[in-house]
Amino acid sequence: MKISTKGRYALRMLIDLAEHQHGGYISLxxxxxxxxxxxxxxxxxxxxxxxxxxxxxxxxxxxxYMLARSPEKYTVGEILRLTEGSLAPVDCVExxxxxxxxxxxxxxxxxxxxxxxxxxxxxxGITLQDIIDQQHERYAxxxxx
Length: 145
Prior knowledge:
Layout (H helix, E strand, L loop, with lengths): L4 H15 L8 H8 L3 H13 L3 E4 L5 E4 L8 H9 L6 H4 L14 H16 L3 H13 L5
Antiparallel strand pairs: 1-2
């Protein structure tokens, strides 16, 4: 499994919104400048989040975007599934029940199911707030005398 640029940029965009959420609506240009991501690329990601009620939108000169929920309500797994689709390491694990004709005799199916479980549990256990807290902790411990 490899996370695409879309998934990585989407996560960075939502972290940026979470970090700056107290300033009201945030323009894509601001996010683009802070994250060094093309505004055009961010414009391609926005419809995914709008369609799934991840963001609140305000049009006009004071317009922009903000998170629809608090940062601790968004998991990395949720964000990546919206942008990447399934996080399953192989196609057959996406199916329930598994439709492969070899599934009853497949020695590797439990391996892929276990990997999918670990991936999903790990990514669903990390929120945007966790990432922000971890980042602040890292910078708080980065001092020079």
